[in-house]
User: Fold this.
Amino acid sequence: MPHKLYFVIKMKKNSFIVLLLVGFLGFSQSDTLDFDRMVEAEMKSASSVQNLRVNPNTLHYDVTHHELRFTVNPDNTTPFISGVVTTTFRALSNMTTVTFDMATALVVSSVTMNNTSLTFNQSNYELNITLPTPLTTGNTATVTITYAGAPPQAEAAFTRATHAGIPVIYTLSEPFGARDWWPCKQDLNDKIDSFDIYITCPSAYIGVSNGLLQSTNTTGGNTTRHYRHNYPIPAYLISLNVTNYVTYNIQAGLGTIQNPFFPINNYLYPEGNTATVQTAINQTVPVMNVFEEKFGFYPYRNEQYGHVQFGWGGGMEHTTMSSMGGWSRSLIAHELAHQWFGDKITCGTWRDIWLNEGFAEYLAGLVVESLDGASNFVSWKASKINNITSATNGALYLSEAEALNVNRIFSSRLTYNKGSMVVHMLRWVMGDANFYQAVRNYLNDSNLAYGYALTPDLKGHLEAVHGASLNEFFNDWVYMQGYPTYTITAQNWGAGQAKITVSQTQSDPSVTYFEMPLEIRLSGAGGVTQDVVVNHNTNGQQFIVSVHFVVTDVTFDPNKHIIYKNNVVTLGAESFQWEQ
Assistant:
């Protein structure tokens, strides 16, 4: 079990100093390894982010539907794909050409509209198509692109590998890898309204993708599986997986009229379909119940949820079908949480990535709180705080330059760990009822649900329920850097009272002062305790609190509600004789 470390220096009678270090032994090494692998997987295809900005040539249309027909064979020695992609789009301004993001290594053989061949050219990761007549604003058109080739391997978005000697193909496109294996529009301003995907492969294998399986047809030694996804989705969350999968299927939901069962379909390597793995996957059911209770129904319950095994360590939150390289409960919880935070509502820029990753990681912590109890949740938070304070700087909200650096976008210390603790601090500041109501309002906002959100969108919903500005909080904890260190003195202050004096220093000069409610535990003889909360706003601020015993010990932030490091807590000599 994790445990707290104290250094106690005994002073004169009724006075001693406790140097409280946020030093907790973290969770098991396997949990830490799974977390590191998860972060690595979620940024696996992001190497080109440093060289790629939003493509201005794709901003003047909105994709309404894709029909994706892919033929792949894992037995091929090169990662080869052939595809026919039919895209329907609506003009946002008058158009004479339409441009898709597409690797030049994928060779287009034809582009048609209404069975008429169109002129096109490929260069610089773009496919540019000349429309037969101008398309005016608000009107729609459909083009069909036929292509084939070996997807570029630098970003590892489309991977051919083996498991137990058996070939496998899998994809992971976050954030800019989708263009490596199909012509798409991969930005954070347009979601595909719906799509159909047909995966054709040798009949020895099974193709797996997002959405709900519609049909399976076998002809001439090949099998085609058709999936349909009827919810808006960004290009990077569409996935393709092919190998000799076996299935292990369970159900989630409470089994009531309001909350009926729905499928959790799992596609596993045959050697991975063990009793241990099945037991681990079964944890998805109580995790789903926690999330549905706190944040509303699973967003895609009309289709399915599931897991598909792939070759990266960690996981990736492909909508309705998370790709998994491990089976720890924390990993299962994180990827499932993304179905609400990251999939239903997706960060609108990579500067806002904490809206995806900070919330998903915090929900993994809520599973610890709900299923393992309060003390384990305190240990979970302490482990996060330890990592966050291992460096003195770093903001949640990225600068323009940082948003071009993949390691910074997917920083485990900042995006994941600080992001999760900032979400918890919002809960601490607002209170449980207001926090959960505000987040549910955010998830159900018709302007955001199944679309994109920016940090101010979340902030607005939080403030609307909180009834007060959160400007100071967001400036300190989201936009600026660092953390506080506190100096706290508690004294017995006559019968039935104690005086608490609080001061603060900051680890980074970007923040003048961290104004926060602070929880302080006062202890007396025989193990009696009393927790008090003081609203700390200025240095040297004093608080007189009621207490029904002589204070013999004081503990700062016993439940780990805020980020801080190396506090000095002093119990001073009592000023007045305690009177019974």
The two ends are 40 Å apart (CA to CA).
